[in-house]
Automatic annotation (TrEMBL):
InterPro entries the record matches: Ald_DH/histidinol_DH (IPR016161), Ald_DH_C (IPR016163), Ald_DH_N (IPR016162), Aldehyde_DH_dom (IPR015590), ALDH_GabD1-like (IPR044148), GABD/Sad-like (IPR047110)
Family in the record: Belongs to the aldehyde dehydrogenase family.
Pfam families (UniProt xref): Aldedh
Keyword NADP: yes
GO molecular function: glutarate-semialdehyde dehydrogenase (NADP+) activity; succinate-semialdehyde dehydrogenase (NADP+) activity
EC number: 1.2.1.16, 1.2.1.20, 1.2.1.79
Keyword Signal: no
The species this protein was found in: Subtercola frigoramans
Protein name in the entry: Succinate-semialdehyde dehydrogenase/glutarate-semialdehyde dehydrogenase
Amino acid sequence: MAIATINPTTGVTEQTFEPHDAAEIERRIALADAAYRALRLTSFTQRAEWMRAAADLIEQEVDDVARLLTLEMGKPLAQAKGETLKCAKNMRFYADNAEGFLAYEALENPAAVNASRAGARYEPLGVVLAVMPWNYPLWQVVRFAAPALMAGNTGLLKHASNVPQSALYLGSLFERAGFPDGSFATLLIGSAEVEAVLDDWRVKAVTLTGSEPAGRSVASIAGRNIKKAVLELGGSDPFIVMPSADLEKAVATAVTARTQNNGQSCIAAKRFIVHTEIYDAFTRLFTEQMAALVIGDPFDAATQVGPLATKSGRDDLAELVDDARMNGASILTGGTTPDGAGWFYPPTVIADLHDGMRLVLEEAFGPVATLYRADTREEAARIANQTTFGLSSALWTTDADDEQFFVDELDAGAVFINGMTVSYPELPFGGIKDSGYGRELAAAGIREFCNLKTVWKA
């Protein structure tokens, strides 16, 4: 895949970039390794000063940065601004909390281990490779970069090939904020070059957000090299609605949860599992509101759903819908690829699914919602857990027993009750099963790429 900005609204190639050659890749790895040896010796106070400066820069540049995100991957401009400002919030969160998260952990009773003093300390690992997707071009990267840099690690970014300008912006941001040269550098390379970079002895670990196949590939390389990996992969998150739910709020939130970021979010609700008592009412309201969404130019303030980021992504989504249609599913709204420029796909609602359809088990990465009827909470949990994914989930109920049942039973990295899944700096984020392993954000996120070193003194 060429490294290029291709406007998804028009299909026009705006700018292409030459990939880095072997010499430039080597130069950047060497620079990152040297920067690590300097950065690890700096204080948390100094790193926090630089991190807050990076947050200031991204806030000052929010309008230009948001336009860049919308140009490269098509999200509505207001959402692009929200993503940019969320990055600044995350930077400040780790600037404020990194030292506490990584504080020395003293054993309260060292005599129990025959010591006068004992405990554990967190130390950075070194250069960490980040392999990142296009759907949140800044946020996906910053939620790794902020804690990694605050811990004293350095980063190499292999971004998706269709967001090179976003990648280059991030590659310069932290240096402009004051971090040592090479602390966070972008590699303009294709997927085929990832293996050689991860094989390099100076690269100590890897984090990847992306597809399940990409995760399997990177995990196998990391495993061969005995290097730490954190994987945040696909999701087919359930959105469960029980009879006691506030139906109007549940429907309105469901529409947002399915169509945010033009439906291209790993943690977007994708499968809507509704108790039979309210299924018909939910389906009617949900379908009406999905059909009423405004599709168009993401730079237009009236637009609620823009284009998909790539032509191949739209083609893949259309294939899933067509497979369901051919196998007897009911298309309640949408479901047809529009004519004209750009990679648009309408908000789509599908019902009457069965096990022979790809949509039942595969991730729909776009504004396509699938509806399931459940007669009992046990059946709802079974449907929710039937995919190989386990990223997040949402539950709508005011019944305390139902709430506890689903918190206990759902196979997921998170359960959001009476709301949609959102990533917060304060809460750990990640999945189980084929959705990956490891955690980002909160204290867990900064500790992933640290050596927990035991210290014992007689």
